[in-house]
């Protein structure tokens, strides 16, 4: 078949008879609704990290810095929700994004744009497609393997997000009328009842999506939509357990975090109490194990103590003294940027009690120091995070001493704080007056 004058010739490989504006719009609709949720929760997560403190996580983003607000410590599940939605929904939408890209593929392979308006539209498409693929790849890699990047994941994912958000906004504005028109061009109920034998191409369109020389159908539109929905459901099934836990946890195939019930050498650590040898109480995911942290076992042995500073003097508490202070118990989540979360029952000394002991009962912020060196060495907490009644320097989880992997002798646990800032193997807390 030869292309008539004025018609655009589809490259020989894009001849699916079901490709067309209606099917593209069917894939666009869940993205139009879902992506803004992914974007907003992602930006909220950024705020939760306390970017105002200029910490190593997240590192500075210069001009892209958002006007910040103090991330609250109440409700305790807030970060678990925003992070779970961001990652969960982001992963579930991947099959839809791929289907959407497939549906517009002829447009990605047309000749050079004619005129400045077309050129701008093309540029926005490059940023749109490049942006979302970059966000998907960096996000998925970060969930699967921690710290595989030669650059800061947070910075790259954040800058990539703004490129994508800009292009997405332009795209939605330009395409919204087409979306509405195309959705109205066929009935979904009818498509879902159409068998292969009656699957016909859409009428030729101005966008060049419909193949002028289509092949015979091998799949119905119902089949294509079902395949994408099934893909999204499958991703949901192997992801949800990361956050929901319980019987779903074993189905979380994308959860690479290990558990710690197996003997981890704790009993060979000098001074390590038998009560802290890992058992079922400490059997929940670990971000990075004690061995991986590179800490010398002696640093958490009998010589260990936590030092409180910021007031006039310095208060030093060893393990027994810490355990002898009034203990508070709270059920609190750890929610990690790598996509998993878990709720456990933590006990320890309230951070606000420690602030009082240090002589700074109303600190402006607090800097928590770990035995560990490197990016996890310190984390800064806001005033409301220190003062929240459930914020703890925890020494026990589920009624038993922390295992080495979960931060023995003591770790911070603060409601609604991103997992990464719940510092393990704490040696010092500086309560700041300004
Ligand atoms: N010192 C130190 N604290 C740390 C980490 C670490 O690697 N080193 N990992 C953080 C991250 S990313 C998370 S999600 C939580 C996980 O706590 P868990 O390993 O006890 O489950 O601890 C945080 N605290
Ligand atoms: Mo984490």
TrEMBL record:
CDD domains attached to this UniProt entry: SO_family_Moco
Transmembrane segments: 21-44, 84-102, 123-141, 153-174, 224-248
Keyword Transmembrane helix attributed: yes
Oxidoreductase molybdopterin-binding domain location: 303-432
Region (Disordered): 192-216, 259-278
Pfam families: Oxidored_molyb
Bias (Basic and acidic residues) ranges: 192-208
Keyword Signal among UniProt keywords: no
UniProt-recorded name of the protein: DMSO/TMAO reductase YedYZ molybdopterin-dependent catalytic subunit
Source organism (scientific name): Pseudonocardia endophytica
């Amino acid at each position: 078949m030869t292309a008539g004058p004025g018609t655009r010739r589809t490259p020989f490989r894009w001849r699916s008879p079901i490709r067309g504006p209606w099917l593209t719009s069917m894939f666009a609709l869940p993205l139009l609704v879902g992506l803004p949720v992914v974007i907003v929760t992602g930006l909220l997560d950024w705020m939760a990290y306390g970017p105002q403190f200029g910490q190593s996580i997240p590192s500075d983003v210069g001009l892209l810095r958002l006007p910040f607000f103090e991330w609250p410590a109440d409700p305790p599940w807030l970060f678990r929700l925003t992070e779970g939605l961001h990652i969960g929904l982001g992963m579930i939408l991947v099959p839809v994004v791929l289907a959407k890209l497939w549906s517009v593929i002829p447009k990605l392979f047309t000749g050079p744009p004619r005129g400045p308006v077309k050129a701008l539209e093309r540029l926005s498409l490059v940023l749109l497609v490049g942006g979302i693929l970059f966000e998907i790849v960096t996000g998925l890699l970060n969930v699967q393997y921690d710290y595989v990047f030669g650059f800061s994941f947070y910075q790259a994912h954040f800058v990539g997000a703004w490129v994508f958000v800009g292009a997405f906004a332009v795209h939605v504005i330009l395409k919204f009328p087409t979306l509405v028109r195309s959705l109205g061009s066929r009935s979904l109920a009818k498509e879902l009842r159409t068998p292969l034998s009656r699957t016909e191409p859409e009428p030729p369109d101005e966008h060049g999506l419909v193949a002028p020389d289509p092949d015979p159908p091998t799949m119905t539109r119902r089949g294509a939509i079902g395949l994408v929905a099934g893909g999204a459901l499958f991703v949901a099934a192997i992801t949800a357990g990361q956050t929901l836990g319980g019987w779903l946890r074993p189905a979380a195939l994308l959860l690479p975090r290990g558990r710690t019930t197996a003997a981890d050498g704790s009993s060979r650590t000098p001074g390590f109490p038998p009560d802290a040898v890992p058992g079922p109480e400490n059997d929940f995911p670990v971000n990075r194990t004690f061995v991986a942290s590179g800490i010398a076992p002696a640093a958490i042995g009998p010589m260990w103590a936590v030092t409180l500073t910021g007031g006039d003097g310095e208060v030093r508490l060893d393990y027994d003294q810490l355990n002898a202070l009034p203990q508070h118990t709270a059920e609190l989540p750890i929610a990690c940027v790598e996509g998993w979360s878990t709720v456990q029952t933590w006990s320890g000394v309230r951070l606000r009690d420690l602030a009082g002991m240090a002589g700074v009962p109303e600190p402006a912020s607090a800097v928590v120091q770990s035995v560990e060196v490197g990016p996890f060495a310190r984390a800064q907490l806001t005033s409301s995070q220190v003062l929240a009644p459930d914020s703890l320097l925890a020494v026990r989880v589920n009624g038993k001493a922390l295992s080495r992997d979960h931060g023995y002798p003591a770790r911070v646990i603060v409601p609604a704080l991103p997992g990464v800032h719940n510092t393990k193997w704490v040696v010092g807390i500086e309560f700041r007056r300004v």
